[in-house]
Amino acid sequence: MTPCSLRAQLTLWVSCVLVSLHPALLEAAPAEKAGKLVHVADTRNLSGFNLFVANLYNTDRLLFTIFAVGLTAILGLFLGWVMDVAVSAIGLDLEKRHSRE
Amino acid sequence: MFDFFTVILPISGVPVNILLLALLGVAVGVLGGFFGMGGAWMVTPALNIFGFPMPFAVGTDLCHMAGKSIISTRRHAKFGNVDMKLGLTMLAFDVVGIEIGARLVMLLEGHGLAGPVIRWVYVVFLALIGGLVFYDYFKKRTLERTGMASEGESAVRWHLTLHRINVPPIVTFDVAQVRCSMWLPALVGLLVGILAGFLGIGGGLIMMPALVYLIGAPTYVAVGTDLFTVMLSGFYGAFTYAMKGRVELLAVLFMLAGAAPGAQIGTIATKYIRGYGIRLMFGVTVICALVSVVLKQLDMGTSAAWLVMAAVTAMTMVVVYGMVRGAIQELRRPSEAADRP
């Protein structure tokens, strides 16, 4: 790769970004359109956890977001810990490694 | 036979097989931990093929990826593969880019163009990344055959040119062993963020090669640092998509349950496989994803679904085989394996 062709590629990249950030493009979405994008979960045939999630989704979007992100983080941490314990029990060294390209 | 596992998801109302979701989670966990990415570039088309509307596929992807990346990042951090300073520098600009990308998706959705536009942009970037990885791999092989290859150096060295940018402040990233202008990782982070938010990926697909080819980080540090940023940006992406109402929580939980063991296997496999081996497999997987998205765009959804499943299954089996083989060798000769170069 020559420096010249690299410069040409970088110019293309920057041009693409500038075009995508053009104010006219960002302002092209009318506010009315965004209003029609609201989605409502159908709770008629739901029960238990599903009903709880759907009701939370329909009634309080911020609380639903906090619940979804928090539950994902907690479950990730918990499952990671469980997997660590399981793999360590096998006897693998999980503390060090030697890198090679 | 598998109808028992089919449920109607509570928010989007899409009927989906949860066994399929969990298996997808396992496979993407393995490949994500191995390649250092969230794996959303496989999950988004797969969920779309399963019947999720594209914005729901993107949001569900980001949320699942955030949880899974916690597992992989913890493991890579213990291996010493995470450069937090580099990751945080890129991340600060990455989140700005993600918000821009997400707004672009909502804009396109308003015009009914989100699905096709996102898929075609996918195609272009997968082609570019796959081509670059193969070019690098075969150039490295050629250099090795002629005895001109340097140990630990990439064959593609764009980063050496970019490191000549002298705009202060000049910073040193110790774990990655890189010294450059702070604005280089910042700009790379911004561009990765825009693409990540737009395509609904954590950024790992773009961040990993960007860290290797533009920043100059070793493959292992690129993988670990990448996962660190994917984890944090994934949470931000999950938050903003959940606020926009495009996260299917139940699907996230089933995929995460499958991804937990998968991520552990994939991360440990990097201990036993060479950096360029990782890059080659990464390239193969990217090309498979590219072909599947093209098929989908050509209304060959069934073929695309089979290709995604076949490619993901095959690559997962290769990584699992590498991990199991390495682990067996280590358990047989623990002291030798620990010191193996």
Describe what you observe in this structure:
The complex is a heterodimer of chains A (101) and B (341). Chain A is mainly alpha-helical and 101 residues long. Chain A has five helices and no strands. The longest helix of chain A has 30 residues. About 20% of the residues of chain A have low confidence. Chain B is mostly helical and 341 residues long. Chain B has 13 helices and four strands. In chain B, the strands form two sheets. In chain B, strands 1-2 form a two-stranded antiparallel sheet. In chain B, strand 1 and strand 2 form a beta hairpin. The longest helix of chain B is centred in the middle third of the chain and has 32 residues. The termini of chain B are far apart. In chain B, 58% of the residues are buried. At the A-B interface, helix 1, helix 4 and helix 5 of A face helix 3, helix 4, helix 9, helix 10 and helix 12 of B.
The overall pLDDT of chain B, averaged over residues, is 82
The first-to-last residue Cα distance of chain A is: 21 Å
By secondary-structure content and strand pairing, the structural class of chain A works out as mainly alpha
Number of helices of chain A: 5
Strand content of chain A: under 5%
Helix fraction of chain B by DSSP (H/I, runs of at least 4): over 70%
Low-pLDDT residue intervals, each spanning 5 or more residues of chain A = 17-36
